[in-house]
Write a structure and sequence with these properties.
heterodimer, A: 350 residues, D-Maltodextrin-Binding Protein, domain 2, 2 domains, 5-stranded mixed β-sheet, 14 helices, globular, B: 351 residues, mainly alpha, MetI-like fold
């Protein structure tokens, strides 16, 4: 996400300070520390609609929060052992580097320079975001290809504008820009018809749409013009990274195989008659048990993840999908299983 | 009498054409906006704890249902809600302590003891460990508890330190004087946000790696020194107004330095500096909301949490109005109390 770019300098500083004292990465010390502490500390954004925000009872909920709970479910067999901390200022990378947390699930874009910084490890992409377009339905536009001559509302001085310039320029299309720095003013300009199109990150547009006087009158175009792979971040630790990566794969495999938090008990009761992949994932003498022994985590970690958190599709629909107030349409985006044309490729658990 | 009063106010409101036009303009504005505002605030408002759908209905006014749903989140943020009594009790204790001391007119030693006690009680209740309760990490100290901790004690500690700084600047040996002046002038020339960023992000880099400086603690320290610098300047003004004559009179009576300060100079200086101090106190209290920028969750930050719920996003205005009203109430109480003190002090001065 764009707004995380400017923290590069403090992160680099902290990383340099950390590199001087850090040990060579060994397998497991961070996971050992988590097990000893009895909770996994996970950083989230404190106010990101749909992705992470405290509910009325003060407990964090949302799409990103689900992956904190996934980690706790896998490690302890209890999703509630996630110590979820909202970080208001965008300094989660620095906090991770400085040893202040075990992982972050905070819509952080994985980029080359960030990945080569010491002290933090990108694990697995949970959401493929990218810059998109929102238009009023009455404009009658189905694709961004039809936006020749449009007036675009976008944030001043951001890479958003550069992406727009690239995209329209590459296609020899004309456009005008209304660049407005303040988000409220920008939305006001768009909703009052001053611009034809509003451009921002896809997930942000979905939340912004809800602020319209009549949200149903606006729609998001399917075109995505920049790459923003929002990725889980962990303290470098081979064992912890394995836990996170493979728990996520369990969520993808479960979706592919039709196992949900609701039917998992029925599936387990009738395990012999399930497909081989399901038996390998959830059976007693299975890949699950083997991996649990090697990593020292809960024996039934894969079951716990699905039972307490759900499969990827369930989490998506519940928190940000078309059934939730966010109303993000999953169809047509990269956030589908690869078998359906998306980028989510379920790795084999065996 | 009544006719007299009426004609007097009539002259004031309609005396000349410009005044009359201005009066009429404002009356028209009030007539035009007033009923709509009252209707939005009260009559069309949605009160019952209902879902966001009720507020989205055609012609619905202010969505107070949002506050009914989210009040605990706004007041206490993500502090575990089953332990909510701890920040609630702690904040109440602080308010009671302030009320008691205000009523007693801030006797010096008693104030120091009571404020220290309230501080310890608040921190113990929030953290839990000193009382044998479950620990709640500072990252979960949110909302009113943060306002009580940073807003009240930032100033409560800043005032005495500020007085000391002012005295160091005036009476200290040359080196101390230069140091105090440098500190005061640097802090006064720096925006609070910069000072807070320094405390939260730069200080930990300068400190030995084994120290972990908590963001809430760093913020409190920075607020204390920042307020101290402003208080020091207010007090310098007060001390200068008292003048050398009083100092010499104190010396002539054979009073030592501290006694002279306590009995002769400071009481007079405070009474002169009070209006400026009131300004610093109110401004300082409101500035507490800036801590949200360094990741400390005050009331404004918890309010933002509340309206980041996708279903309730549209009702930010209602929540911010409520928090604004709370700040207004507190600042009005401070201002009123300080005015009372001023009147009493000037009464004693006249005698």
């Amino acid at each position: 996400m764009l707004r995380h770019l400017y923290i590069g300098a403090p992160v680099a500083l902290a990383a340099a300070a950390f590199a001087a004292t850090s040990q060579p990465a060994a397998a497991g010390p961070v996971l050992d520390e988590i097990l000893e502490k009895g909770a996994v500390t996970c950083l989230v954004n404190s106010n990101s609609p749909g992705f992470s925000t405290p509910d009325s009872g003060g407990r964090y909920a949302g799409f990103n929060v689900a992956f904190c709970r996934m980690a706790a479910a896998a490690i302890f067999g209890d999703a509630d052992k996630a110590d979820i901390r909202g970080i208001g200022f965008s300094d989660s990378m620095k906090t991770i580097v400085a040893d202040g947390a075990h992982m972050a699930s905070r819509s952080i874009t994985r980029t080359g320079t960030r990945d080569t910084d010491p002290g933090m490890a990108f694990v697995v992409t949970t959401f493929y975001d990218g810059q998109g377009f929102m238009v009023p339905k009455k404009l009658g536009v189905a694709s961004a290809q039809e936006l020749d001559g449009a007036t675009v509302c976008a944030e001043e001085g951001s890479t958003t504008l550069l992406n727009i310039a690239d995209w329209f320029g590459d296609r020899n299309m004309n456009y005008k820009v209304e660049n407005i720095a303040d988000k409220t003013a920008r939305l006001q300009a768009f909703f009052s018809g001053k611009c034809d199109v509003m451009s921002s990150d896809f997930s942000a547009l979905a939340a912004d749409r809800l602020l319209a006087p009549e949200p149903a009158a606006y729609t998001l175009l399917p075109d995505v013009i920049s790459a923003e792979p929002l990725t889980l971040l962990a303290q470098p630790d081979q064992a912890l990274e394995s836990v996170l990566f493979w728990s996520f794969q369990v969520m993808l495999n479960a979706e592919a195989l039709g196992v949900t938090s609701e039917n998992i008990d029925a599936v387990l009761a009738d395990l012999e008659n399930q497909p081989a992949a399901v038996r390998r994932m959830f059976g007693a003498d299975s890949a699950m048990g083997d991996m649990a022994k090697k990593l020292g985590i809960a024996d039934d970690w894969a079951i716990a993840v699905i039972r307490q958190v759900g499969n990827y599709g369930e989490v998506f629909e519940r928190t940000i999908g078309s059934a939730s107030p966010m109303g993000l349409e999953r169809a047509g985006t990269a956030n589908r299983l690869w078998t359906e044309g998306g980028l989510l490729y379920a790795h084999p658990i065996r | 009498m009544i006719v007299d009063a009426l004609s007097r106010s009539g002259r004031r409101l309609l005396g000349d054409p410009l005044t009359a036009a201005t009066t009429l303009l404002f009356v028209a504005l009030a007539v035009w906006l007033g009923p709509r505002l009252v209707d939005w605030l009260f009559f069309s408002a949605v009160w019952r704890p209902a879902g966001p759908e009720a507020c989205a209905a055609e012609g619905a006014g202010a969505c107070w249902a949002f506050l009914m749903e989210k009040w605990a989140l706004i007041l206490f943020g993500a502090f575990p809600h089953d332990l909510m009594w701890r920040p609630a009790l702690g904040t109440t204790l602080v308010l009671v302590a302030l009320g008691w001391l205000a009523w007693r007119r801030w006797p010096l030693q008693e104030s120091a003891v009571v404020m220290l006690g309230a501080f310890i009680a608040l921190v113990a209740l929030l953290d839990g460990r000193p009382l044998g309760l479950e620990q709640v990490a500072t990252v979960r100290w949110h909302g009113v508890a943060i306002v009580a901790l940073l807003g009240v004690f930032g100033l409560a500690a800043g005032i005495p330190i500020g007085v000391a700084l002012a005295l160091a600047r005036r009476d200290g040996p040359p080196l101390v004087r230069v140091l105090a002046t440098t500190l005061i002038e640097t802090l006064r020339a720096t925006p609070l946000v910069t000072v807070l960023f320094f405390g939260v992000f730069v200080l930990p880099l300068l400190a030995p790696p084994s120290w972990s400086i908590d963001a809430v603690v760093a913020t409190l320290i920075m607020l204390v020194v920042f307020h101290a610098a402003y208080v020091a300047e207010d007090m310098r003004g007060g001390l200068r107004a008292v003048g050398d004559g009083q100092r010499e009179a104190g010396d002539a009576l054979g009073l030592g330095y501290l006694k002279r300060l306590r009995l002769v100079e400071l009481p007079q200086a405070v009474s002169v500096a009070l209006p400026a101090l009131t300004n610093t106190i109110i401004g300082g209290f409101k500035d507490t909301s800036l801590v949200a920028l360094v990741g400390v969750f005050d009331l404004i930050a918890t309010t933002r949490m509340a309206y980041s719920d996708a279903a309730w996003q549209r009702y930010a205005l209602e929540a911010l109005l409520a928090v604004g009203a709370l700040y207004l109430l507190v600042c009005w109480l401070i201002a009123r109390h300080c005015r009372t003190l001023e009147e009493e002090l000037s009464y004693w001065r006249k005698r």
